Amino acid sequence: MPRGAPSPADQQVISQFAERGLVVTASQLEGWRRAGLLPRHRRRGLGRGRGSVVDAVDPVLVESAAALARHLRQGRDRRLAVLEWFAEAGMGVRPEAVRVPDPPIGAVRAALVWVLERSVSQRLVEFARSAAGAGEEGQNALYEVARRLMKPYRGAANPVLVRAALEAGEDVPVEAERPDSRRMVYLVAAIGFGAQEVGADALAEAFAASGMFGLTVEDWAHALAAAERGEGAPVDWGPLQQHADMVGPVKQASDEELVRARTVLVGLRGFYGLYVLHGLLLPDTPALAALRQRIDAWGMFPILDQIIGLNPSPRQFAESLAICMEPPLDNLYEALLEQLGEDPDIFSVPGDDTGPAGFGEMWMRAVRELSGPVAAVSGGAGPGERALVQPDDVILPPPG
User: Fold this and answer.
1) What does pTM read for this prediction?
2) So where are the chain's domains?
3) Mean of per-residue pLDDT scores for the chain
4) 329, containing H or E segment
């Protein structure tokens, strides 16, 4: 074989890619193997002194290389492609489609750690801890850094209010009435400087901005003040310190825990999408209403709105996955799966025997009949993301 020429096995892979409209070279395949992203071809020995041969190219190797070819491009860090590959592998597929294999989990962990160490939230936490003891000057420096790094966001408007506005032909609300998300920097300050140094009023704004339990600034201020007066259980700031670091838990997580976090994230994305689509006139059914009621009972729509991106970048995916390793999100996912199992007919309108097809037609008819255009309403769509949720975005796990 001429030096530098692809092996017969690699030539098979390259030919299969060409049939799909993908271009890959033998040197790229070898580079991916050296990086630990692709296995080598399985070879069969021919006997003493006779060498070995590849009988057939492993389909898993082909699909893994195809995933890399889809997500890699000139000048892009390979770790971002690995995260996109990992996200794609966790998505549901149609029965006739080929399932995307998972990338090597060690490469996934390394990519997650690399992204999280560079995330805004991790950098702010590290800055706050490094400035501990610097007093008011240190806090002011932290707030200035946060002002430059954090993007303002008040949360998606309640889909129930959006739906009512669309049906009435009124202006559609595009933001929730929560404090600017940048107020959550006060929680970061509490990690570095201590809650007492930050003050109850600032922390009330931070908790309200997070959307936890749907409580307002006034609600949180009242609760924190009562705790300070000894009229209720004292506030335990330990969990805040414990969960502030996203990098450590990812480093320590087992392979199974990382895959589970992806399962939770993908599943919650589907449930969140259905909730948002209610605001865009998705026909309401008892099963859909029950799912929304579960989310509301947990007070979790604002939290999902903060962490779920329907078309996330690899960096958003990494941060969301790290959060989905925590018990509250895992428990919510299980509760919603339980509800879906109890009533799986989410796309069946009572009294209509046309099933999902009729459901879809009813939805499209409702949108067409609007007196004005549908506003660009979404949950937390960032720059470059689609603002309007699409039906294909909603992928739910099977009930049971």
Assistant:
1) 0.82
2) 8-103, 120-155+177-243, 249-393
3) 82
4) helix 327-342
